[in-house]
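sanity check this fold:
=====
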Amino acid sequence: MNRIRIPIQSIISLLEGIIKEVIGPVDDIYIDNIADIEHTIETTLDWINPAKKNKQQIAEASPAKVIIVDNDVIYSDVMKFSEKTLIVVENPKVAFSLVGNAFFVQKETPGIHPTAIIDAEAKIGVDVYIGPYSIIGKAKIGTGCSINSFVRIHDDVIIGNNCSFKEGAVIGGPGFGFEKDESGNRFRFPQVGGVVIGDNVEVGANTCIDRGALSNTIIGDHTKIDNLCQIAHNVQLGKNVVITGCSAVSGSCVLGDDVWVGPNSIIRDQRKVGKNAFIGMGSVVMRNVPEGEVWAGNPARSIQ
């Protein structure tokens, strides 16, 4: 990580809309790192998990001079003596994440690597990064996207703004659909749909999102798909869906908003998973899952 010095005032400005109170000194205080609690030093930004029962003691013992906390942490004499600064917010982890992403996460510089292949009819937004050996077909890519190396984006793919694609992702390839002819031999059902991806979507390494057969595969805003996942043709994922590693969503499934799919899970074709449902690790979903329920197992069943 490159060492940089961020004045606390810049952090306060970034969090202006969510800060409840800043307690302690703010002049000539700089942060140069974020780290876990075992590697925290004076110039590291720390945060205290509100779920901890001993969060007051954790905050007082932290060597960090600047700590993000919730209302339950009191600015004690111990903190005053050590000249700590508390940034009080409702959700310290969210605030800490905002600071980390804004100042400490390395971002690719927008631009197209010379080895990338871009179709002449592709439409590429501003501030887009396209990495080595990626291939972009007749697709539309929004502003601020990051497309890492060896990514393949086929024709008829529409991608929103601020999306991220890790190495080896394949977007818009033909789906796995076949029929039998009179002799019983399989032949491919036409795959002529597209893929529509919303804003702020992340797609992991070596993950495949197939084009629709006759309509589009749809990925909603803020959805996150982990590494080594399969999203089959005609799938519809709502907003803020999480598909964790090595999971497969079969053809024509519909997942509502805020669904969580645990690692190594499989959802059978044409199933519906209601919004806010939770699918446990290694589940095989054979039936529709109602809204807000927790399902797990093989075959998966409600474990409310």
In short: The chain has a mean pLDDT of 96. The helical segments are 8-14, 55-61, 77-81, 92-103. DSSP finds four helices and 37 strands in the chain. The radius of gyration is 23 Å.
